[in-house]
Amino acid sequence: MGFFHKLSTAFRGIASEAGETIIDTQAIRILEQEVRDAKKHWDEAKENLAKVIAKQIGIEREIKRLKKMIVEYEEYAIKSLDKGNEALATEIAEKVADLENELAVQFSVLESYHMNINTLKQNIRNTELHIKSMEREMSVVKTTESVQKANAAAANKFSGSNSALRSATDSLERIKQKQQQKADQLKAAIELQQQESGSDLHEKLKQAGLVSEAISAQTVLARLKAKQLDKTNIRL
């Protein structure tokens, strides 16, 4: 019994973790849906408010009608009294009383509409502010998630032995090695060519002073100046 109880508990724990994982991975979608639901309820609330305001307007119109009728019947009652027809005046007075009682009821209804409308307007305004706040937060969350994904992708791409950056570095190193190898081969080929043509031996003899260097213009000019100086000395 204890084993199966623990096994059941373990399965519940796995299911709970899986559920939390799903919620975490779909958090933004869930938040977006919640915002859409809130907007839908907000729109419905505005529609209901419009209906309530329409009814309030109807009550106000009914109150105006009752007031007008009361004034009108009061005038009839006064005229009846002026003609000495008290029975008719009494009947009219009963009508006026009924109208005034109805007017009092309509005033009560109108006051109720005023209170409800003010409450609805405040609730709708609060809901609007809350939705805008949620949209701002959602924008920040989505931007943060995009940045985190970009950072994660960059980290995965440029880290580790198989990363693109390391691969590029290795390729660059191989290119440099090949270039150095080609430079060494070229240097060796030049040295070999010099040895085959004897230019290398000539260079060694020249450095040893066994082979004279080619006559330069400076050498010729120095020699001519020396001859000119000798002629001048002979004349003297």
Automatic annotation (TrEMBL):
InterPro entries: PspA_VIPP1 (IPR007157). The keyword Signal does not apply. Residues 169-196 form a coiled coil. Keywords: Coiled coil. It comes from the Bacteria. Signal peptide: none annotated. Belongs to the PspA/Vipp/IM30 family. PANTHER family: MEMBRANE-ASSOCIATED PROTEIN VIPP1, CHLOROPLASTIC, PHAGE SHOCK PROTEIN A. This is Phage shock protein A. It comes from Thioploca ingrica.
